[in-house]
């Protein structure tokens, strides 16, 4: 039984509210509660001193976007989550445009599945591996080709269900030997990975083109300059591959680019026009330089013979060497000692000479004068020697360097750039569908199963966060593009907020993502923090507001600092943001 004195309160009319209006005269309105304010948003700043030549990663930490918990492992804090979520939503939009469906696969995958695909041995050292209580072997997935192929194979009923385009944006794991540069080379990361399944090669290439167009649109929306480079498929498999690079001096990749025709390639596959030029044979043994390496089984010493380039020792192209000697282990710093141990216990130990095409025809002439055996070896234990030369595919052991002739056009020369890889597209063909038994049948030949034609496509979400921070930061702080800024606009009042300031925020919020800094901090500290955080637009509400209702609008990226009347502010800010 409800007491009569409380009945009136229980029977009051319902109040309907929306994020922007309140349909009652109550003192507390949902619109006010929904206004974004830094006093209600956790941003752990302060206590970390600025360093000389501060990296973008260091600025992310100092501004309160993330914190490191272990080597290569990071907690993303609220500011970082907002940026990451905006990147993911942008990707969602463009994936929806090309008809991709989003799913979320388990982070756990099985060792058996990776052994079945043939990838386990090549990548085992980079996998986080674990066992359950029944001693079944699992791994934390770095990618999901095996799992997605098995899923589609088990659910596909007919060729009429194809094509299928599936993607996810989830955590991936890779046990990096040397995690570095924050989120750019971490052991746990967020990646968007998409997979396409078609019945024909033509359909798979059409999917590849659609994803490539979507990636171009994504990076255009980010407003960062991207080089799209021909690339190696590596352990992923397939024979059609492109990387999406942001040029930056801290990048770990090297990209060759021709401004004349647009040719762009990762240095793993980049070529020059030199192979068609006239060869000037060496005139002495001094023109033969050697780099030594060893195979993974430690039984074969590799002598890579290469010439000077423009009169200088430019070293060798290890990518070309790996193409010639697939089991070459370039991580060994002292291959001669490792091979010497193998000589004592393995009678089948041998030495292989890999010859740059410029030296191949003269090798036998100068062979007796060359240090075929390492200096600390004696001829009393000669190994078997063989020479690797291919007349059909001559080996170019020299690295690509600036001003090399472009292989695609007559007049162009190559420029060399350090770059950060943000995305990668692969045409896989039947690399996974055959070993994992993903087949369908077609009406023209229903008795003959056809393996699915596949593609896979990745974008590093957390890597984009770090790379854009690095690329756009200046001496004042981060400088986000509008599309992924934690907030597009920050309002900084010099005094406490008033109802008029609240109304101004509501007005700006109709077309922008706005936050107000109402923390109990000094005005100067707030301004420095806003610059460090990298908000695209800063609206200062100071003395001019009290006298004639004007604000000072600052946009560091466009070099703007201007007084604007309150009535004109929303349109002025909108036009600024359209340029960012």
From TrEMBL:
Pfam families from the UniProt entry: HGTP_anticodon (PF03129), tRNA-synt_2b (PF00587)
GO CC annotation terms, alphabetical: mitochondrion
Protein location: Cytoplasm
Keyword set includes Acyltransferase: no
Enzyme Commission code: 6.1.1.15
InterPro entries: aa-tRNA-synt_IIb, aa-tRNA-synth_II, aa-tRNA-synth_II/BPL/LPL, Anticodon-bd, Anticodon-bd_dom_sf, Pro-tRNA-ligase_IIa, Pro-tRNA_synthetase
Aminoacyl-transfer RNA synthetases class-II family profile domain segment(s): 80-481
Catalysed conversion reaction: tRNA(Pro) + L-proline + ATP = L-prolyl-tRNA(Pro) + AMP + diphosphate
Main location: cytoplasm
Keywords per UniProt: Aminoacyl-tRNA synthetase, ATP-binding, Cytoplasm, Ligase, Nucleotide-binding, Protein biosynthesis
One GO process term, biological-process aspect: prolyl-tRNA aminoacylation
GO MF term (any one): proline-tRNA ligase activity
Transmembrane segments: none
Keyword ATP-binding among UniProt keywords: yes
Family membership noted in the UniProt record: Belongs to the class-II aminoacyl-tRNA synthetase family.
Subunit structure: Homodimer.
Name under which the protein is recorded: proline--tRNA ligase
